[in-house]
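Appendix B: complex inputs.
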Amino acid sequence: MSMQQQVLPLPGVVAPDTGHYRGDHLLVAEMVERGSKVLDVGCGEGDLLQLLEMRGIDGRGIELSREGVNRCVAKGLAVVQGDADTDLVNYPDDAFDYVILSQTLQATRQPRVVLENLLRIGRRAIVSFPNFGFWKMRIQLLVGGHMPRTENLPATWYDTPNIHFCTIKDFVQLCDEINVKMERAVALDMYGRPLRVNLPWWFWNMFGEQGVFLLSRAEKGK
Amino acid sequence: MVNLQPVASPSVHTEERAHEADHPTSRLAAFGADQPLKLDCGVDLSPFQIAYQTYGELNADRSNAILVCHALTGDQHVANVHPMTGKPGWWETMVGPGRPLDTGKYFIICSNVIGGCMGSTGPASTNPATGKVWGLDFPIITLPDMVRAQTMLIDSLGIDTLFCVVGGSMGGMQALQWTAAYPKRVFSTLAIACSTRHSAQNIAFHELGRQAVMADPEWHHGRYFEQGTHPHRGLGVARMAAHITYLSDAALHRKFGRRMQDRELPTFSFDADFQVESYLRYQGSSFVERFDANSYLYLTRAMDYFDIAADHDGVLAQAFRGIQTRFCVVSFTSDWLFPTAESRALVHALNASSARVSFAEIETDRGHDAFLLDVPEFFDISRAFLQSAGKARGLAGGLA
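Resulting structure:
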């Protein structure tokens, strides 16, 4: 079964086009309201930004790799070379409606600080990350006795850029700690399909390959 | 015979150069006594003229005009044969049919800066009050003065908003000045290999160049034209020093290495034994053919004074507060005259203003001059930026 087989209905994107996009990108794009202003942190080669622009969303990006940035700029996207760990401080409060961190949190040096910055710059944040509690990961460590490697995370422990892995449970705990409100949480299975919403957290933590969270600032005092 | 003179005497005579300064082989916009140029130094410059070139057609709603700003020793002849040197335009790789600045789509304007020597009023022009060449009597000009003059030119062409202001080096500085001072008149800005302020190192190099000019006895305190001479040796040395800063160690090594010029062995003299020496001498000699020494003093000074943040309480982000202009900032990895860090500081300030900005650093060993050379990645980025801005401006439909 391929990712192309699951297609989320997405207003503004014609059906034949959705197949070109990653499942988590489609989910993220669906979470963003039309007409809003978005910053994509770690935007890679700009696939998500292009998807957002098709929906009439004003998208900007930051990307660490020069090659990625230049490919984005050559697509006409507003992308700058920068580092999530050091460059988010340059953005003013409330500059964006949404700040997106797609599959990048685990590669930052200070995930907590980055998360706090996302919700300072943006009124909302959308964070997706690989779930280290996914059953395949657990089995590799428990039975194989080695650091897990999957199709989506193929790097070995010594050359991976991912230095801060977490599970969905860990991430939810961090959100509680720094007073972040979870507006929506979705776990995607290994095919990029959303798991059923009425399942318990432990099931998500076991069978979700990645988590996608729509976050906002909790009311003060809560 | 051993040649110790680094820079050959110019074949272009002083009179010829003076004629081009007053009566350029270019389009001309003249501003009379009723339209003085208000200079930062407090002087009202009047009358004055701007020499410019245009390429392509202005569309019906006057929305496709691009202003190209030239660098320190550039001029308005961006995409046509130069009237004095007979060489192709200085940016024909970038401007022309099917080029990133497509003359089939856009109306391209390029004007000689105020203080220049190719037809816009400057120290090489005739002072109407005395009937003699201005020389050092010409008032000190700044980058904001150059841009103010350009706004008067754009007004005279009946253009309210420029689709894009483009420039590299000093041209990029003008593009940034345009955007900071007249944000509503600039739809997009393409700023290449430049900075929002001139660094101490760059001021130091300029001072070296100016001192070389002034140390030439033929400079005559700036009144060389009355002696029928030109300080070509001083200006040539200034150009040689500056030219080194436009390249990089890697590029010089790749191009010349330690290779000898037309000889097998050292001559044990101060002749140009090495290819790199010969190349620099050639650069110096060809430069003095087309450039006025006093103009070089004025334009380098204008760059030295440039500091956008200084006009905004030292906070660069203030200069771009609430700006709607779309930016593309480009730097080159081996550019040590305007290093990437300078562009990054600009990008951070633009981020702080929530401006729409693209920023690409292009890998090349060709140094600062890369913006004038054939660098395909740079062209792709420029083209895509303009296309995307054109879409937002509604240019795509009307200009197939």
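The first helix of chain A runs from residue 15 to 18.
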